Amino acid sequence: MPLHTGAITLSDSVKVSLLTCGPGDELYAKFGHTAIRVHDPANAIDITFNYGYFDSSIDGFYYKFVKGETDYQLGITETLQFITEYQVLHRNVREQILNLQQSEKQTLFDILMENYKPENRLYRYNFIFDNCTTRPRDIIAKAIQGKLRFSQKLAGQHDTFQQLIDYYTNDSPAIAFGIHLVLGEGKNREATLQQTFFLPERLMQAYDSATIQRDSITVPLVVSASQLVAVPDRIHKAAFDYIAAIMGALLLIVIIISYFDIKRNRLSRWFDAILFGLTGLMGCIVFYLTFFSLHPLVSHNWNVVWMNPLLLVFAVSLMFRTLRKMTYYLQFLFLACELFMLVGSCFLLQKFSLPELLLVAALAIRSAMYAVFYVFKK
What we know:
By secondary structure, this protein is α+β, with helices and mostly antiparallel strands.
């Protein structure tokens, strides 16, 4: 039945369910996915509503993505096609049939169809607070003519946003390191139960034990659950943190180079140009996200104190003898910032990973070398 021909009255045999897709290997797929299925055999309807579509071919897509101005949209696919896609991707798909009344199913379907209109289907994507999982969560809650209740056991969990994210990225140290760098102190805020539902598996687990309170009657939210695509579960096991090992090795190299610099009474400026230059390049991203991006949780990022574009200015100034004096002044500033970060890691609301602290320590040693040489030359 064509879905654009007008209002559709669902039959009594219709089933509405939540589809939860397991995590994948790519960054965008690491947290899983959510969709809503409407299966009405009497009307020859078996479709899936998916809020995860985006067009990467539009002009300036990657710039808009970094800035937080990415528009996602609601799409509709045949459920068989949706399932086949995840079979090919080798990712789990679990279905939870919802215990909704006929009027609630119709309301939910009407909301979805209204959202699918061309003028409504686009929305401003927000990784934490408005994504392909929070949209189904809100629509299902809106359609229920009663009070949706969740297990008190779930409400008693006290995970921060960073802990929730770390669970899905601990098998990819490079990705975890990058996320730690760009997220600000808001990442260490404790997420409410509803806020944890930005993660598909969290919403699925909450629905398993959720109930609907209709006057004096309490019914389970989920009638039945099944596995539409069954593959071995992805084990979220922490991998060897090679980023921490690299940063530890870097710190050792810095100590060795600094020792020989003192012995020969000469700074290894070529090494500092590379070290501070690369850190400065990363700092450009951190700086931009902190002050200009609309993404949640990236503002108020203390990492911008020690990792920012000013490090690039230092790296470039090393190439000009006439600017050598300025390099010493810059390093006095850097040293103050780096020492503040090392001490501040004990009392700041924002928590820092081991690789971050090792890198700050390496930079601090090289900054201290400039202070020592400046004083010695005096």
